[in-house]
Automatic annotation (TrEMBL):
It holds the Pfam family 7TM_GPCR_Srx. This is G-protein coupled receptors family 1 profile domain-containing protein. It comes from Cylicostephanus goldi. PROSITE patterns: G_PROTEIN_RECEP_F1_2. Keywords: Membrane, Transmembrane, Transmembrane helix. The keyword Transmembrane helix applies. It is found in: Membrane. SUPFAM superfamilies: Family A G protein-coupled receptor-like (SSF81321). It comes from the Eukaryota. GO terms for cellular component: membrane. The chain crosses the membrane at residues 21-44, 68-92, 104-123, 163-187, 223-242.
Amino acid sequence: MVTNALANFSLLYDPLRRNSFCILCFSHITSNLGVLLIFLLYAVPSTLGQKEVAGDQMNKIMGQLTVVFWYATAYSHLAISVNRLVAIALPFQAAKLLTRPKSFLLVLVIWCIGLCHAAPYFWSECLVNLANNRQSLLGTYCYVYYDCRKWRWIIAESQCGKILIYVAKFSMFILIVKCVIDVVAVVKFRKINKVFASNTSLFTLSEVQKRKRRMEVKFFKQTLRRNGLFLVVFVNFHYISPLFDDRWLVYLTSTFAWQLLHALDGCVLSS
């Protein structure tokens, strides 16, 4: 949490970072903080208290908020990559395309999509039974909650829950698209650097221009590191963690892995 808070502080108070890219980074880091706050203020006390609250409404609400923050993180990741590609591939048009108002609008869209992803988790038995008192094909339970005995977040075991697990794996598609965009940006960035090096001496640039170029390289390296973190944690949570029965191994490959991802995101950005 400290690293994420410091990263957001640097984004707010560095004049060179008050641009479209950093607005998206701020959204991304804020979603990280949201997830970590839920872990710290809700999951930790629940684990220490060992209170069984699988059906508790507050537990469900915390699960819904976690889903919102998580998808805000994922889509902010994608938006940052697109932003960086546009800035590199279309340097002259970028000033018009990547304006602050458009960036704020994009952030609003990202968080609205996150809310849409969380909407199905509000599905409750009372809503299902409104339709002629007949059970829906999706089942009567559709929520995510924190299991303090297993130390992990669990989606309800219903047909609806199974569908939502597949929807959650959609994050992998987001990562693939993000990686493709980043690869294209790398190729374009190298070509531009070669042309730049052959025609312009760095000594002819002002100090501000030099600093901006160093920041471009730094931000791009940070994006690549985030891809690696995202991939490792995703594979751990969806494919490795289910192989274990031991509570500690499940915790390390799922809950702890997600916490580490959101914490290290702040380290990468503030480094």
